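Researcher: Next entry: Universal stress protein (Marinobacter albus).
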Amino acid sequence: MDKDSPSIVVACDESVHSLNAAKMAAELADAMGHPLKLLTVYPASKESVLVISGVEHSEIEAGKHDYSRKVFDAAKDAIRGRTDAAEEVLLSGDPAHEILEYMNAHPGTHLVLGRRGHSLVRSLTLGSVSEKIVRHAHGAVTVVGA
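Model: Predicted structure:
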């Protein structure tokens, strides 16, 4: 599959909001005739804690794999009967940064993601992944609310 061909990419995590986003992304992919890709980012904060704790590299990689399998399986269950995922993408690092880098490297990506609905104070002081992506993305982004 050409990395520059249009695709619908849904950002998945362990939240109910990302499952709602996966359902909408599946409907968009089906309606538009584009492939659906599942994307998750293993947070750098989790990896850093494990590195500092002295966990072996192979165990960290196994943890990433387990995390992605859990997230992707939940997303696949949510979209079952709508469409199939053409690809699963696992990234590591800061979620907003990694998703934006992915979009920059894959022109034509239409990103769908859920908004977790953090409190107004938290969103104003820390920002949210969805807000950062909407602010900085070069491409189509659909944010699915609660």
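Model: Note for the record: The radius of gyration is 15 Å.
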